[in-house]
Specification:
single chain, 344 residues, alpha/beta, Aminopeptidase, Elongation Factor Tu (Ef-tu), domain 3, 9-stranded mixed beta sheet, 6-stranded antiparallel beta sheet, 8 helices, globular
């Protein structure tokens, strides 16, 4: 069974989570990944639309393994007359999973301000019960309150904040008894798994038989992360979270092999190869289906018309698109399945 550098993987996960990367603004995390690839000795380049692609060696049957860098978040929709900010979603950040969180607002001229996602009005003691009990809605009663002495739209604009600025949410990473809790485990945990594999290749000097591309995509959360692939790609293996739930087999301590996401079944033969690898390696794994609202970057490549086989695996994760939770064991099982399959 392949060794797993747990410390390196978790260190990289914490480092990645510390870099805000709401979809559409991934420049800082892309620079970080490019620096790591150089440090590990792999050729890498930034994609023109965003994202980073690295080559890990090998010559036969080219395969892309992908995990995405971008996070769900918000964008400033309007500066309100009272100095609060009206926002809209970037990706699938539902209101009920967002209120009461701390945020950072990134302006177009490079300034950063802190604030909170609040109900409006915010104090239950001084508003009618029907108002305070209403469902949160970005269009009606959810705003960003800045940590600045602003009382008007003019005050806010004087800071340089305007429509179109990005709002990133504080991830709140914790680790206890092997359980990882944080926003954006989706998909930075899988990015850390891929980086741990790259480190393993560097340290062992192993030369893969297959040509392996590592594609760190930047637009998965809005559906077009890997809508472009290298021309010689034969297969794509997506690493993404495996949501747990009442009808799911996925478990926070296991790796899931995906049979189907919302629109499509995954490639039958390739998925069987991945499944057989999990069996041969003696991993703690399950097969699962994700519906009615789930997709991976493997799907975006198929939608784009690429003639490739596609499969997906990932760590069981609860509370997806909220304050997520998984376990180190799930990352370990995901790593070992990915690595064993790529090195076949």
């Amino acid at each position: 069974m392949l060794p797993f550098d747990e410390k390196y993987c978790l260190d990289q996960l914490k480092a990645l989570l510390a870099i805000d990367s709401t979809t559409g603004k991934c420049d800082e995390i892309e620079k970080y990944i490019l620096g790591l690839c150089e440090e590990l000795g792999f050729e890498a380049k930034a994609c023109r639309k965003g994202g980073v692609i690295a080559t890990m060696g090998g010559e036969e049957d080219p395969i892309v393994v992908t995990a995405h860098l971008d996070d769900i978040g918000l964008m400033v929709r309007k500066v309100n007359p009272d100095g609060t900010l009206k926002v809209c979603k970037v990706g699938g950040l539902r209101e009920a999973y967002a209120v009461m969180e701390n945020v950072r607002v990134y302006t177009r001229d490079g300034k950063v301000y802190t604030g909170s996602i609040c109900r409006s009005p915010g104090s239950v003691h001084v508003v009618d019960g029907d108002i305070s009990n209403a469902l949160p809605d970005y269009g009606k009663n959810v705003v960003i309150v800045l940590d600045e002495p602003v009382k008007s739209a003019e005050d806010v604009r004087a800071l340089g904040i305007e429509t179109g600025d990005i709002v990133a949410i504080e991830p709140r990473f914790t680790l206890y008894n092997g359980y990882i809790k944080s926003r954006f485990i989706d998909d930075k945990a899988c990015v850390a798994v891929v980086l741990a594999f790259m480190k393993y290749l560097k340290e062992t000097g192993i030369k893969p038989r297959r040509k392996i591309y590592a594609y760190f995509a930047s637009y998965e959360e809005i559906g077009h992360g890997t809508s472009w692939l290298p021309a010689d790609t034969a297969d794509i293996l997506a690493l993404d979270i495996a949501p747990t739930g009442p009808d799911q087999n996925s478990d926070e301590r296991k790796v899931s092999v995906f049979a189907k996401d919302t629109p499509y079944p995954f490639h039958w033969a390739m998925t069987n190869e991945v499944r057989q690898t999990a069996i041969e390696e003696g991993l703690d794994w399950v097969m699962d289906i994700f519906t009615p609202s789930y997709g991976t970057d493997a799907e975006s490549s198929i939608r784009a018309g690429y003639d490739v086989r596609h499969a997906a695996i990932g760590p069981g994760t609860s509370n997806t698109h909220g304050y997520e939770r998984t376990h180190v064991d799930a990352l370990k099982n995901t790593y070992r399945l990915m690595a064993a399959y790529l090195l076949k």
